[in-house]
């Protein structure tokens, strides 16, 4: 759990920390959306360059981001294997029984690795430099136009804020339960896969009960404080755009134009 970097917020004073969370969310969404259509090496090179600049502006070490990639490495390898061995085409580079590696499959596998890593790192940069409460407030602000069609934006933002606050609490609770079980002689890292899977079951029950108890305590606390609706809540920190947001918007706009240009040329 200590290696799970995505979703965590680390306080800092780098340039990206001063950018409004709404701008960072929009930039991340645009970046991920463009990566879906990337199908050339120049486009991926440009996307990598934009990401590298973003990571530098976070002021965090590259080792931290590598730690965030390692927990999802198995998913990357699994996806690469699917693309590598089950994509048809010619020429065939390797063939053994039902396994076959083709040149299109190899290229698609490399594209998948790049796309996956770039998306994870960009999302990590967003969460590392933005507090969970700021992300919830930014999403509520961005979804305000949906109020015109009776979408409960304030309630959705409140639910998101509470969920984001519960993530570190559940991780801490998981760590406590695991240490308690280990102190009683239970091993979670030895034995066969079936044995280790069975060892996880005693962790789920106290975690589930603890999560329900925390939710009930929170509901009671909100009720006794007279909470009725999320629509009329005031804000301690009001979001506002600054010159950093203008620079970020111009830089992203230039990236989008160059990216579309590369796709159009190829």
From TrEMBL:
It is found in: Membrane. It is a multi-pass membrane protein. The chain crosses the membrane at residues 25-52, 72-94, 106-128, 148-172, 246-265. Pfam families: CbiQ. Keywords: Membrane, Transmembrane, Transmembrane helix. Its main location: membrane. This is ECF-type transporter transmembrane protein EcfT (EcfT). It comes from Fructobacillus cardui. The lineage of its organism: Bacteria, Bacillati, Bacillota, Bacilli, Lactobacillales.
